[in-house]
Amino acid sequence: MEAFVTKLAEILEVDKVEMHDVLMDFDSWDSLTSLSIIATIDADFNVNISAEELLAASTVDDLICLIQTKKEK
Amino acid sequence: MSSDYTLITGAASGIGQKIAIQLSGTNKLLLCDRDVDGMKSTLGFCNDPENHVIWEFDLYKITDIKLSLCEILQLRRIFVDNFIHSAGLMKVMRMKDVDYQNALQIFNVNFFSAVEIISTLLKKNINQGHLKNILFISAILGKFGAKGHNLYSATKAALDGLMKSLALELAPEIRVNSILPGGVKTPMSEFALKDPVIVEKFKKDYPLGLGEPSDIANLVEFLVSDKSRWITGQQIIIDGGRTANMSQK
Question: What ipTM was assigned to the predicted interfaces of this complex?
């Protein structure tokens, strides 16, 4: 997950993201950024997340939990 | 049935696979893809599988295309009369994430491979003037835009530009056309179609709904036949009414 958090920071164009950071609050957040995150999750974890699910996952921590829950299924 | 072969790239899945299956009753096929298992599966659905030839090749290896194509034509002692370029990579990314390397990858597969194949098939000492038809599976995204489809759109627009000039350069012996499909249910679109919000949006955007690979294969069948003998140099849109749709969403 550490590698994913680093990648998330790259996509969001910041040096570092914290677990409690709200995804939509990042300056670079837009529909294409969310698409890049979805594509990265699909490529790295083989987990499909819809745009709606991503929006519902408010923080970085929520997103990681979502990936883990979907991965276990 | 002609003794010449129809070369189909991207024949292991999606639209390319369906084109192969549909043409297999009337044409001998030279199937090209990097996925040999996928091509074997295509062959399994084809009429008379023994009539057709598999050319396992990754079109990303752009500098090896000519040699590999020459080898298979000479080894099998075959000529190609129809070339259908259906292979394509789709990458959705932000422009700020694009770099020369990922641009090169998608351009090699979607565009430069077609350039190398056509240039090879036009050589008299290799294909002896047998080529009669070139057909590109382009996309409506080559003519219109969509966020994040920067490179994909550019490769399809490049194919269509090439198509128009080749139609003039190679007439009257060879006809050259592009088919521009809208959204078709294939492995390429599978990722997006898992999202119910996107599926709902497509329902509004496409008056006739999303397309099936067979919709495209039917048009291909017409365009490689003599029934379309007076059509060349055209971008033919087949999209269930998507690009005609200016309705308020």
Answer: 0.75
